[in-house]
Design a protein that fits this description.
The structure is a single chain. With 66 residues, the protein is an all-alpha fold. The chain has a domain of 30 residues. It is 44% helix and 0% strand. The chain has two helices and no strands. The longest helix is centred in the middle third of the chain and has 19 residues. The model has no long low-confidence stretch (mean pLDDT 77).
């Protein structure tokens, strides 16, 4: 289990992710992805979440039935 509270990815995780999806990038771009992953993860962790799915607001969009 990952105990990292920032949610950031390690460099090796980014390389594995790219390999898994067939993404071929130069070393400089992989390093940049690693830098950006920390910022994106910290931003995501700062977004308030509802404590329970049952307490989320009702959907306002209704699919048309016709």
């Amino acid at each position: 289990m990952n105990t990292d509270t920032t949610g950031s990815w390690t460099y090796d995780e980014i390389v594995a992710h790219c390999r898994r999806y067939g993404i071929v990038l130069p070393e400089a771009q992989i390093k940049r992805m690693h830098e950006l992953s920390a910022t994106v993860s910290q931003t995501g962790l700062g977004i308030p979440r509802m404590p329970s799915k049952d307490r989320e607001p009702a959907l306002t969009f209704v699919m048309p039935t016709e």
